[in-house]
Amino acid sequence: MSPTRFLRHRFRDRLARPAWLAVALAVPFSAVLAAPLDTPLEAPFDNQGQACPAPGQWVTDDGQRRSTAALMPELAERRVLLLGERHDRLDHHRWQLHTLAALHAHRPSMVIGLEMLPREAQPALDAWTAGELDEAGFLAASDWQRAWGFDPALYLPILHFARMQRIPLVALNVTPALRGRLAAQGWAAVPAEERFGITPPAPAAPAYRERLTAIFEQHADRDDDTAGLARFIAAQLVWDRAMAVALSDAARPDTLVVGLMGQGHLGGGDGVPAQLDDLGLTDHRSLLPWTPTGDCAAPTEHADARYVLGDESAFQPADPLRLGVLLEAHSDGVRIVSVGEESVAEQAGLEAGDMILTAAGVDVESPTDLSAILRRQAPGTLLPLGVRRNGVTRERLARFPPAN
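That's the PDZ domain-containing protein sequence above. Prediction below.
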């Protein structure tokens, strides 16, 4: 899931995270974005002589300040609502949960769409909402770690809300492999049944193309990779279209569909909103969380309404430990593409081309496996890594600094 973690499958958490990431996902860079588009869109608010909006208020696109009680009845009448997020932000997910609960009070007939999981995970979602799986069973059945990789604890309150209220959950995404295949080969080369009926996307608007180009250039290995840029934009459009089609398919006259996704997929009216328009579903609204900063100057990215958050940083979970490597999947484990300067990996003697086979004695079959192990690692500890170089396997010790 997120254009950073952000080129998710070579880069993880693109704009939301530092350039040297703990892992990058398992598909080649050309196949898909690093992370679901969760571009930071927070910006100050233009107070025009007034005080900054208070936490708990909504600010609409025309500058009005609304209460939740006043705004929710209007929003609940829409066909589709899109709730953006930074994937690693606890306060964003709490806001999503509270908004879902408020909307559900006005319109109990609801469907919740999740960017986090591909369509193959739909049976697991159905079993979860039916009460047939516990948390561990759901995470295993949905293959959460490989499909998404972010800490499930951030999302479990929302999943439990849906389960308690028996609200259907819909997988909006497709696998990185299918995204890459559609982006590289085109729709004609992939039978309709293998692409879940997803139709070709509308072209990217110039402003969206510029934003995606800027993201690509932050992470490209060279400046003149026009073919790589084209694949990158094509993959992003596949991602947006796949989610829009799933939302459109779930929309019924008597049902409110709420999609949860990285805010980069909806900021400025591009991405998923544009693809919904192309599908003929224009009755949608985009909502974003927002923490005002600085002089409260107005946000530059369009959203139909923004919910004002206070400073919740004290409750934000600590960032996971990072090796400081760029990884790609390999048949034998994961291969190091590059190593960051002065990183934990460099200090451990890791080099580009090394194969990481094990971590903490556990087999590493994909970059997401390593992510899960790093999330469990405490600051100030050692992580033994089984590393193969030039056919010779030896142990390397990654020494993580103590917490600040």
